[in-house]
């Protein structure tokens, strides 16, 4: 059973979600990914956690006007990543917030955040991840 909070009468109140300290998932990205990673070791192991939050620090980029990222999920039987949800940040999104974040339900999988497309004079992106 999941951890739950107990009130003064011993009645369960709600699940307890424990988050992790953010870790560096990817650093120093200067362009879109040409291909999917070849093996699970490049991914983020989310065993024991339901959700992941990716924080994308693009503050080192110059004239970033478009960014598309996609969640990849490792399939151990097939021995490769399968493509999941994709998110596009347009010029207005990035102007309002050059350090966007996104959350995904991962259910304990090994995942990887792929940069599908980026438009910038100079691109510099780091991706941080925290689990809950």
What's the SSE blueprint?
Elements: E1 4-6, E2 12-15, E3 23-29, E4 44-45, E5 51-57, E6 66-75, E7 80-89, H1 91-96, E8 101-105, E9 110-119, E10 125-131
Antiparallel strand pairs: 1-2, 3-10, 4-9, 5-8, 5-10, 6-7, 6-9
Structural description of this entry:
There is one protein chain. The protein is mainly beta and 132 residues long. It has a single domain, classed as Jelly Rolls (Sandwich). The protein is 5% helix and 49% strand. The strands form 3 sheets. A 4-stranded antiparallel beta sheet has the order 3-10-5-8, with no helix packed on it. Strands 4-9-6-7 form a 4-stranded antiparallel beta sheet. β1 and β2 form a beta hairpin. It is globular and about 60 Å long.
From N to C, what is the helix and strand string? EEEEEEEHEEE
The number of distinct structural domains comes to 1
Walk across the major sheet and give the strand order.
3-10-5-8
Instruction: Give the low-pLDDT segments.
Output: none
Q: Considering DSSP H and I runs of 4 or more, what fraction of the residues is helical? A: under 10%
- Characterize the main sheet: 4 strands, antiparallel
CATH topology: Jelly Rolls
**CATH classification class:** Mainly Beta
């Amino acid at each position: 059973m999941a951890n739950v909070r107990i009130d003064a009468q011993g009645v369960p109140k709600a699940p307890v979600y424990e988050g992790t300290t953010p870790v560096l998932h990817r650093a120093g990205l200067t362009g879109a990914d040409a291909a999917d990673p070849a093996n699970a070791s490049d991914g983020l192991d989310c065993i024991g956690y339901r959700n992941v939050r990716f924080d994308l620090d693009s503050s080192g980029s110059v004239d970033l006007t478009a960014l598309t990222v996609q969640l990849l999920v490792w399939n151990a039987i097939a021995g490769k990543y399968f493509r999941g949800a994709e998110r596009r940040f347009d010029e207005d999104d990035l102007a309002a917030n050059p350090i966007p974040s996104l959350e995904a339900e991962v259910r304990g999988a090994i995942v990887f955040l792929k940069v599908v497309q980026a438009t910038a004079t100079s691109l510099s992106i780091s991706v941080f991840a925290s689990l809950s």
